[in-house]
């Protein structure tokens, strides 16, 4: 797995929306691992990890991020966790469970499932591309390919009309 610095260098310099998604994945991971409430983690990120005063990319810092998008994704995943896990489970092989996923990959797929299930913007292909850029930053093995298959299947299921054009 790559560090947040490598993720940022690959996918988010000058891209606040991508930075928001990177921070959301980190916050979702932290919330799950520590048991802290999403609101507490959002507050910590906004105060200490997001923005130009947050420092560099080391230690999970994200200098450029769209805070409303970041907070919206984290809150949305926290509120809809069961429904999102059901969506994810429906797009995994029968032998896989959501709990079996790597925790960072699980956070990434939950965030993408939230965005894909929450309306028509951004377009599904943009959501897939954004999360694939991030997956390539976090992982160096087969995880990005796995994520691509799940993201594509979820997008085609949740936003079928966008793929009929």
Major sheet summary line: none
In the CATH scheme, the class would be: Mainly Alpha
Please count the helical segments: 8
Average of per-residue pLDDT values: 87
Q: What share of residues is helical?
A: 55-70%
> H/E order of the elements?
HHHHHHHH
CATH A-level architecture: Orthogonal Bundle
Tell me the strand percentage band: under 5%
CATH superfamily: NusB-like
Radius of gyration over C-alpha positions, nearest whole angstrom: 15 Å
Alpha carbon gap, first and last residue = 36 Å
Counted beta strands: 0
Given the helix and strand composition, which structural class is it? mainly alpha
Q: What's the CATH topology label?
A: N-utilizing Substance Protein B Homolog, Chain A
Which descriptor suits the 3D outline? globular
| Tally of distinct domains | 1
Give the low-pLDDT segments.
1-12
Give a structural overview:
Mean pLDDT is 87; it is low at 1-12. The termini are far apart. Helix 1 (4-11) packs across helix 7 and helix 7 (124-138) runs antiparallel to helix 8. The protein has a single domain (4-154), classed as NusB-like (N-utilizing Substance Protein B Homolog, Chain A, Orthogonal Bundle). Helix content is 65%, strand content 0%. It is globular. It is built from eight helices and no strands. The chain has 165 residues and is mainly α.
């Amino acid at each position: 797995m790559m560090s947040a610095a490598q993720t940022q260098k690959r996918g988010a310099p000058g891209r606040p929306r991508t930075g928001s998604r990177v921070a959301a994945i980190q916050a979702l991971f932290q919330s799950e691992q520590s048991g802290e409430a999403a609101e507490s983690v959002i507050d910590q990120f906004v105060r200490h990890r997001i923005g130009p005063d947050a420092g560099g990319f080391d230690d999970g810092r994200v200098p450029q991020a769209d805070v409303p998008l970041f907070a919206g994704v984290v809150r949305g995943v926290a509120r809809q966790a069961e429904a999102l896990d059901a969506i994810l489970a429906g797009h995994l092989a029968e032998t896989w469970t959501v709990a079996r996923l790597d925790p960072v990959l699980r956070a990434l797929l939950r965030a993408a499932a939230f965005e894909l299930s929450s309306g028509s913007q951004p377009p599904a292909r943009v959501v897939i591309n954004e999360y694939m850029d991030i997956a390539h930053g976090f992982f160096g093995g087969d995880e990005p390919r796995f994520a691509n298959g799940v993201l594509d299947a979820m997008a085609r299921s949740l936003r079928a009309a966008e793929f009929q054009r």
